[in-house]
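Final report, results section. Input specification for complex C-07:
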Amino acid sequence: MIGCRYKIRGTRYGIMNIRRAFRVWQRHFTVYTKLYKSSIVLNFVEPILYLLALGVGLGAFIKDINGVPYINFIAPGIIASSSMFAATYECTYGTYVRMTFQKTFDGILATPVNIDDLIAGELIWAATKSMFYGTIIIIALSVFRLVDSPLVMLIIPVLFISGLIFAELSMIYTAVVPGIDSFNYYYTLIMTPMFLFSGIFFPLDTFPPAISCIASFTPLFHLTNICRAFTWGNVSHVAGDIVWLIGMLIVLVPLPFILMRKRIMK
Amino acid sequence: MQIITAKGLTKNYNSLRAVDNIDFEIIKGECFGFLGPNGAGKTTVMRMLYCFAAPTSGEIKVFGMDVTKHPSTIKSRIGVMPQDDNLDLELTVLENLITYARYFDIPKAQSVKIATELIEYAGLTEKINVSIKDLSGGMKRSLLLARALINNPELLILDEPTTGLDPHSRHNVWEKLNGLKSNNTTLILTTHYMEEAEKLCDRVAIMDSGRVITIDSPANLINIHGGNLEDVYLKLTGRRLGE
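Structure output:
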């Protein structure tokens, strides 16, 4: 029986159609154009607060890290973290509300759009938002004169890739949570430690090797390295981090689809 | 001509058998009702019909195609009016329909025209640029019905189309469904209102605990078993529909 079911799944939902995924993206975009005025300022305020409080406040005591003024040290990481939170929010609370309370998924899945198209649309939308929010921070940093190189523009396409990874991770969690309260665990036990221990606020070499080893497995660690490299214009080591992100993107990609099919197509 | 054939259709949810080895055929142009209390398996049958859940065993063909193999093609030709209101709350009445039309790849200019006509059909022309939040329950049901018609479907699936509506809005929906019927659209609906089944359905399948007990026209059922459809139901299942 299990074999039979598996086969049915394989034949039935196996083919993702990018045009239909784009229809889902368009729906989210249309809705977002209605809401952005109220949400964009909030999303923009928090990272700037971190930058000012830590960069200026704490920076007065720290002076520099490896010869870099503290505010310049943390600024690129703020690009990374705000894009991470944008994708994560979208595929945790956003996806969950659409899937359960609003029943948006039921409406979409009654059309030619299938489950895999829908999940792909959700992920691509989250990555788009991630890229957009990161770009706003890049603009803000440029205004504050915290950008040293025009290469900073190359961060934007990377934010799409990392956005997809954060969306995939969030979607995997969303596919298995029993209720909306469970997202607290994801934020407290995964997002906050990743935010604090990915080398955004201090270099990890002061910690025991185990910590920096764990950190090097998180996408935020690599994204922060990439953001630094392009913001400072020092790109000699950036290729390894980019390859790592692309590898993680590919390794994770089947999971949100498999788990969401299991959750929704009962 | 059969538009739907189901053979030995079974659906398990873990250890629960929601639909238990049922057979039925639905003919083009008829209005077919699934009648039964909550938990009888009606909604599960509907979900399998519009490719939302795969059968555990047996098969179900819509337009001669297996639902597990050609979901998009099948869904492009059907309309679904869900039991729950799942309109996009942030969008206006018109935007809701245009967004929905995009899922069917209807070009923008054409979708605006169709949407405007359907909004008129739903009696919501004055509300065309109003947010969904500002519509009454009856208006939302009318809009859900209009949305289900956006792709000019050959088959319309209605899951409890009038549950929770006041009598006036209910008659309003019935009138529209009768209009669609005379337009040769095949209708499938689930309901637990006998009056709804008697008024609209050419044939009904009476369901209980995942099984189909009988399929016949309301008039025949009343002739054979006596009384009204409510009594027929009580006789066949040993309980009242409202229970």
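Confidence is low (pLDDT under 50) at residues 1-14 of chain A. The first helix of chain A runs from residue 2 to 13. This concludes the modelling results for the funded period.
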